[in-house]
Amino acid sequence: MVSKPKGDQMRRIALAAVCCSVVWWSGQSRASAQPAGWTGPLVVVIGIDGLSIDGVERAKDPQLHRMMEQSAWTLQARGVMPTLSSPNWESAITGAGPEQHGITSNGILGKMSKFEPVCKDAEGHFPTIFEILRTQHPTADIAVFHEWPGFADLLEKSVPNVLQHGGSHEKITAGAMEYWKAHHPALLFVHLDIVDHTGHDSGWGTAAYLKAVAEADKDVGELLDMVKQDPNAGRTYVLLTSDHGGKNRNHGGNSIVEITIPWMIAGPDIVPGQIQSPVYIYDTAATIAWIFSLNTPDCWIGRPAIAAFRSSAISARNGLRTNTSSPGCEPAQRPAIAVAPASAPSSAATNLLGPGHSKE
Ligand SMILES: [Zn+2]
Quick check: is 169 in a domain? Predict the structure, then answer.
């Protein structure tokens, strides 16, 4: 029911996108206040935990709709299973699913159960967008402000210049804005949890839930104004998404309302309007990497959502980016396994790894 945009409402947004696409960046001076040492693009990610499609459509959320008018967007993006926060936020920041990064449950409920990641850095972590940005641009300023404390467990804690937890969505937004105005980080990730909290307390789709979406909507408006009023607006992207929806007072199940998430991006080179091709939550990191022209690790599976970008931007970047192994990400060591063909006598077991490897 809520997996598709409501026809009239979405058509209005699509039409508004055509006529208003210039407004987002108009009137901005691009000549001043360039952050020292970083002249590349700036990316602000707004992650609204537990924001459902129903919430986007039904809440009083003019700022989310303002964002959509200026964005390439879809209300049919897919998260990953299980529809919990840790596996999904990890997917958003690593460009891969639980099958690759190994996080399969929610850290906040105790020890995150996970299996060995497909590849890992020296500290054993599946590489996030923060790490590959840091590795390939050591001076890039990276900032993470998160309302849900468990978010910090999903990334390399030593990588961001700032990794700050705050107890309310207002504090998180205020802290992120203060930092952004002072430092203009290359990558700012803002995680807001009020919507998910309220979903658990009162139920997804309830009046209280929609009110919480409206509260988060104010934060979105402040962050959009922050970018719009800044001299660096012309090189700043804003990407907004969620980790999962919800059902009754929970999520983690396998319903379409839990796994469908909004995904939208505004900024230079973006073609406003509905994205027609599929977008997955792990495309988030891949899209950010593409904006920064980063090499992405082979163990990522996400693809940049290039349908959101102008063709001129796509051709300009295609010559820059290759998908090769990234420094700091080595394939996880696999145990030496000798496999005997089922029909062969045990004495003739074949060591498929060749000379020098023994069965352990
Ligand atoms: Zn939750």
Answer: yes
